[in-house]
Amino acid sequence: MMKKIVMMAVVGAALQACTWVDLSPAGEKTRVLSAAEVVNCTRLGTTTASVKAEVAGIERAPERVQEELESLARNSAAADLKGDTVVPIGKPKDGKQVFEVYRCMP
User: Fold this and answer.
1) Are strands 96-103 and 85-93 parallel, antiparallel or unpaired?
2) Cα–Cα distance measured from residue 52 to residue 38, given in angstroms and rounded to the nearest whole number
């Protein structure tokens, strides 16, 4: 029984550290800014990012979830809306977050 508990703890810790979303080359050039930083930019629309907030009943580290949501938003902004900047709208909820997409650079 103790062996099983230790194994679950190890698996849980490993899952906390996992990041499964890679930035595309265009996403790497896309920034995450605050609303105050995009006042002179052109708003292009919104994108919604979604990732697993828990795996096998174990909650993932909030900073990893946030990192993946931002990566997905950056990839989407560049590919779908030709944007170069995203601004998170509110906080992530259940592994989902909405981002406004902007073009700030000429």
Assistant:
1) antiparallel
2) 29
pLDDT at 62: 92
pTM above 0.85, yes or no: no
> Is it the case that residue 24 has pLDDT exceeding 50?
yes
For every residue of 85-98, DSSP letters joined together read: EEEEEEEEETTEEE
Domain layout of the chain by residue ranges: 2-103
Domain covering 2-103, topology: Translation Initiation Factor IF3 (3.30.110)
pLDDT at 90: 92
Which residues, at least 6 apart from 15, have a Cβ–Cβ distance to it below 8 Å? 55, 56, 58, 60
